[in-house]
Amino acid sequence: MSPGKVSTLDFEKFYNIVDGKQRSSDKVHRGINPTTGQELWDVPIASEQDLNDAVAAAKKAFPAWRDTPIEKRKELLGKFAEAFQQHSDEFTNLLCKESGKPRRFAAIEVGGVPGIIGWHNSLEIPVDKLEDDEKTVYTEYSPLGVCGAICPWNFPLVLSAGKIAPALLTGNCIIVKPSPFTPYTALKFAELATEIFPPGVLQVVGGNNELGQSLCLHPDVAKISFTGSTATGKKVMESSAKTLKRVTLELGGNDASIILPDVDVKKVAPEVVMGAFQNSGQVCVATKRIYIHESIYKEFLQEMVNFTKTVKVGNPDDGDNLLGPVQNQMQYERVKGFFADSKAQGYKFAAGEPDVAASKGYFIQPTIIDNPPNDSRIIQEEPFGPIVPTQPWSDLEEVIARANNTNSGLGACVWGKDVEKASKVARRLEAGSVFVNSWEKPTPQALFGGHKESGIGGEWGKTGLLAYCNPHVIHVYKS
Questions:
Q1: CA within 13 Å, CB half, 325
Q2: In order of start, what are the domains of the chain with their CATH numbers?
Q3: Can 250 be counted among the known catalytic residues?
């Protein structure tokens, strides 16, 4: 794309992008607008042939892209970010329709894309040199080849960009498979890329789970980066193992927030609520379990309830609403199951209604469950929706053990006036990212990944680039 020229993307027609060209399909499906329950535009379902063609195109494009100087690759990534920014309003509109998230939060996600690309453009691929009398040993890093990115529906743009930027910067080619629930922004993102990058460098194929499995099994794909549920992540790893693919898995979480007794209750309680209900609770690192010191439990819970009652839920353009609907019917039914279970068990609903009212869209009022037992479903499992349990604690050792008593380990929070004490607690929590005096706010400047069954490996930060590289050690002996 020449400088100053604005691309002309049609935001109502959608294609897979294979070898730099738009590709339709005999088979189509439609996303659902979760605000209205109505169908959106036709989306082509990629065939096995489409995927094989995309892999072949990526394999063909790889040597030249690998050998393109990193400064040139950065320049093209920068141009891509600029071209994207010229369409930020259209991408925001599209994201509102496919995800249902309020416009201001959709705009924040869209604005995060150039930020992620810009951060990666500030990095260099590391080189290490070791010398002694006999030899010099160079540790360098080379790209893997063809990478596959299987992306989720909760942040379809930012989480796609978070895989695309490091892959392309390090000299890989990448094929993106968006979630069938939110295919539109990713398809348009890759279409825009055809104006900047050589054919085959960045492609997108939309389809169902079978297509994702085919990507994992394909012998010419060197790596899969997957963000999604732990159950699906295990399947991705199993399929990828057949060809010993590299995998980065960012999976589900069951994040604990520990509230120490010295907090400013009025200030902190609304923040903790935001951590639980941001994006309608559809965040892998949302706060999922809240542990409040017994001396402030009643007061803190009451402040959480007070704030929760002010939270507006509605359509993307309803003005000052904080939350939209749950993104898809499958997830809506799953979240409703937590309501039904909590009601059947007789748990106390501190805020929200025990019954989810029927509506055209997948709307759920944010809900707090007051002190359910440790073995309850709402404590043990990740709802991925706007429902959260609170429990009191008295003994610090015991509550740290309770927080760590899960097979998840993605994120966690500690809140306390004494920052040093809170930080000591944070260091004992078994999670990849722990936040002190903030709800979970991952940043591309820091590595992001999980402990235990919340994932393998990590992306972003200074070392995240290495997830897209093979170490290449050259031993040079002196004659």
A1: 29
A2: 16-251 (3.40.605.10), 255-452 (3.40.309.10)
A3: yes
